[in-house]
Amino acid sequence: MYYHLRIYDNYHPMDESEAYDQGSFDTYTQAVAEAKKIIYESMVYNWSRGMRLDDLIRQYSFYGADPVILPAGKGILPGFSSRDYAGTIAEEICTKREAQQAP
Length: 103
Description:
Structural class: alpha+beta
Distance between the termini: 50 Å
Shape: elongated
Strand content: 15-25%
Helix content: 40-55%
Order of helices and strands: EEHHEH
Number of helices: 3
């Protein structure tokens, strides 16, 4: 079985005309790794200096890339939540980006 990654825009949730395919992966673990990379990059892009943790999470929830992992066949996925993952990395992003921007 392979896993397909489809990316939605949180600004246009579940709007197929705004969604795009990111590819197929042999394992669920590979698909999750790519989804996490996309979320991280989206949050870094939406970060701005002085942004608080909850502001970054809110910004992601409104405008970030939202990857969805789809199985090729009939199968039950362990469950990956883009928003849960965004919540776990937001503090790291804010801290790291602030440090990089410090004079």
